[in-house]
Known about the structure:
This protein is α/β, with parallel strands linked by helices and 241 residues long. It has a single domain (3-227), classed as 3-Layer(aba) Sandwich (Rossmann fold), CATH 3.40.50.150. 35% of the residues lie in helices and 23% in strands. It has helices spanning 3-10, 18-31, 45-57, 77-84, 99-110, 131-144, 179-183, 186-195; strands at residues 35-39, 61-67, 90-95, 111-112, 115-116, 120-125, 145-153, 168-169, 172-173, 202-207, 211-215, 225-227. The strands form three sheets. Strands 3-2-1-6-7-11-10-12 form an eight-stranded mixed sheet, with helices on both faces. A two-stranded antiparallel sheet has the order 4-5. Strands 8-9 form a two-stranded antiparallel ribbon. The longest helix is centred in the N-terminal third of the chain and has 14 residues, at 18-31. The radius of gyration is 17 Å and the shape is globular. The mean pLDDT is 96.
Amino acid sequence: MTFEQIRRIVGETPYMGIDEGWELYRFVTETRPQACLELGHAHGVSSAYIAGALDEVGDGRLDTVDLLGSAGREPNVETLLAGTGLESRVVIHREKSSYTWFLKKKIEEQSDNGVCVPCYDFCFIDGPKNWTIDGLAFFLVDKLLRPGGWILFDDYTWSHGKHAGRDSTDGISIRGLSEQEISEPHIEKIFKLLVMQHADYSNFLLQDGWWAWAQKTPDGHRALAEGHKAMDGKTGRLRDS
């Protein structure tokens, strides 16, 4: 399914811009991951772009995980995927407390004689933006990510302090956080202190100060490169390469 077909189906459904949708679609069609994992799907826009790209290349599947409450969104991921006809490409999982529990179960499923056999080629983390949950998620995903695979974090500079007035975000209660936990961007800290310091990861890229990429390979560049997404989010046009 083409990018434009997916774009028309998802329309203005939150929470993914056209530039982000194109970046996901382009990445999947170019790298052709066999098995994708999405942690946090909200309404399912990102799921639709990934599924559409997998369909376009003719192979691959997506496991997408969110909280139980995501089933009540309008539209939810089931509805959005039904509009694309790509339900067979996606397996939807929901957990009561956190996608880290799904990861725990997946590691159990993939373990043989005390060793976890990696099963994913790409993971997109777009969840509660929380040091405790997403920091753990990285180490759990690492066990499941094949060598050469990629991991992508959304919300690199997001912080609770920049979104005053909320009592909670994705199940994280603000009143239980310290001033530092409220003011500091958790994903940035996870990426710099956990991902970039991990010996098995390199080829770090920060796009538009918001999306952070890393590849599971010890042989790439270890400095954080910065750049833009291929499409301009305001105009919907591809940037000059």
